[in-house]
Amino acid sequence: MLFRSASDSEAAVYLGLMYENGLGPLARDEIKAVSWYRKAADAGNAKGMANLALMYASGRGGLPKDDAQAVSWSRKAADRGDATSMNTLGVMYENGRGGLPKDDAQAVSWYRKAADRGDAGGMRALGLAYANGRGGLPEDDVQAAAWLHKAADRGDAKGMSLLGAMYASGQGGLPKDEAQAVSWYRKAADSGDTGGMSNLGFMYSNGRGGLPKDDAQAVSWYRKAADAGQAIGMSDLGFMYANGWGGLPKDEAQAVSWYRKAADAGDANGMNSLAFMYNIGRGGLPKDDAQAVIWWRKAADGGNVASMRNLGVMHENGQGGLAKDDVQAVIWYRKAADGGDAASMSKLGFMYNSGRGGLAKDDAQAVIWWRKAADAGNVGSMRNLGIMYENGRGGLAKDAVQAVIWYRKAADRGDAEAFAALKRLGK
C-alpha cells in the first residue's frame, strides 16, 4: 500500500495500536495490528518499524519469534531517531540476541541514546547498568537512583518497582524510607508490574512501610503476581499455602505445586523450597534426598545461599547420593557464608574449630566466623563465643564478663545450652 502523506502512515500505526490493544470499537487482533505496522514500516514510518520489531521479538501477531528480524527493523527505526528501537537494540546487545554479540558496552551506548531521547525503558536500563557497574560504567548507586527516578516519573512500571527497592534499602543517596518504597511498589503494581505486586505482598506480609501486617493482602498480591507469570510470586504463594496463612488452608500439596511452577520458571527460592519438600517427604512427594540434591544444586547455581548451605550439609553427612566429603562441605559452606548466610558462617566456624574439611584446626578463625554469624543473628554462634571467652581460646582473653554477655544473648533467644551455662556460672 502506498500512502500519499506521512500522516497516512501515522494513521496506519495508530490503527495497529488500536488492534493490538483492542481499543475503541476494534476487537483485539494482533494479526491485523502486524499488518498495519508493516504497511507503515514499508512506507518508512519509524514507529511502524519499531512496533513491528517488538512483534517479531515476542513472536506475536502471527509472526515467528525472530530476533534477527527484530534487530533488523529496530536498527532501521533507530537510524530514523526512534528511541524505543534504540532501547530494543540495547536489550539485544546486552543478551547477545538476533545475531548480535553479547556486548554490554554497546548495550549501554544504545540505552544512553534512548534515554537521552526520553525513552523510559532506556532510562531504567541505564540505571541498572550503573547499579551493576556494567558496560564500562562505574558501579554508582547515586546515578542508578537518578536514572530509575527519571524512568519512574515517566511511567515506567519496572522503574517504579526498582526505585521502591532502593528506598527500601536506602541506596543511591536515598533515605531508607519504607513508606516511599510502598508508594512506588503500589504505583508499579497498579501499572501491571509483577515485581511491584510481589514486593507489595512482602510489605503486607511483614507489616512494613506503614502497612498493617495483613497476610490476606499479601496473598492477594502474590496471587496477582503469580497469575501474571512471575516466578517469585509463585514461590511466595507456595510459602503461604505451606503455612496456611492469609486465609489459605494449610495445604502442602498446593505449596509443592506452586514451588514447582516457580522452580520451572527459574526461581531459585522455588527450587530450594521444592528441594526441602523432597528432603522431608511432604506435600505428596516421596522422601527423596537425591531429588533434593538435584534441586538444591540448581538453586545454588542460581545464587540461593540456603541451597549452598544445604549442599554442604548433604556432603558433610553423605546424603542424597553424595559421598561423605568434608572438603566439599567446606567449599559450599564458604560460598554460602560469603553470600551472607549466618548458619553457614557458623558451620565454617565449626569446621575450623574441629580442623575438618581440609582446614587446619584454627580457633582464631573459628572465632572470626562465629562472630560474623552471631552479628548476623545466629544463636549457636553466640553461645560458641561465650564458650571461647569463658575458656580464653581463639586468641581471646579469658573473660567471664564477655562469656556471660554472649551466653545471655543466646539464652534470650531460646538456646538451652546457653541457659545451662548461665545457671552453671550462677548468672
What would you note in describing this structure?
The structure is a single chain. This protein is mainly α and 427 residues long. It contains 23 helices and no strands. Helix 3 packs antiparallel against helix 4. The longest helix has 16 residues, at 6-21. The model is unreliable at 1-6 (pLDDT under 50).
Please describe the structure with a list of short key phrases separated by commas or semicolons.
427 residues, mainly alpha, 23 helices, 0% strand, disordered N terminus
Summarize this structure briefly.
This protein is mainly α. The protein has helices at 6-21, 30-42, 46-58, 67-79, 83-95, 104-116, 120-132, 141-153, 157-169, 178-190, 194-206, 215-227, 231-243, 252-264, 268-280, 289-301, 305-317, 326-338, 342-354, 363-375, 379-391, 400-412, 416-424.
